[in-house]
Amino acid sequence: MDNDVVVWIIVIAVVVVLLAAALWFARRARTQHRRTEAAEIRDRAAEQSHEVGQQEALAAETAARARMAEAEADAKRAESARLKERAQARGGEAAKSREELDARVERADAIDPDATQKFSPPDRDERS
């Protein structure tokens, strides 16, 4: 029986060595597969890098256009505000001139002994 025990120990040792070798080869194959897969992913990423760069450039260009349009709109708003101010000032001046003109006409009508009807300047609307 001592021979049988030695044979069993040798068989078990061989099985353990074979299992260890199988596990080592399987792990090595899995590691190599992962390396290959990672390399493929990197290659695809490198190919897509150009497309992403173009998309980033397009986004930057669009943002620049938006900023330029916004600056133009700000300039137009400022011009509009300036023109409104000028129109209000001119409107105020025109109203003041109209009042002065009306006062002169009324004074002329008041001092003219022959004035039987009120004088209306030709540029004045009858609706006023």
Write the layout of secondary structure elements.
Elements: H1 2-111
Structural description of this entry:
The chain is mostly helical and 128 residues long. Helices cover 86% and strands 0% of the residues. It starts with a helix and ends in a 17-residue tail after the last helix. The model has no long low-confidence stretch (mean pLDDT 90).
Radius of gyration: 49 Å
* Shape verdict: rod-shaped
Mean pLDDT: 90
Low-confidence stretches: none
Outline the biggest β-sheet: none
Distance between the termini: 136 Å
Total beta strand runs: 0
**N-to-C order of helices and strands:** H
Number of helices: 1
- Structural class comes to mainly alpha
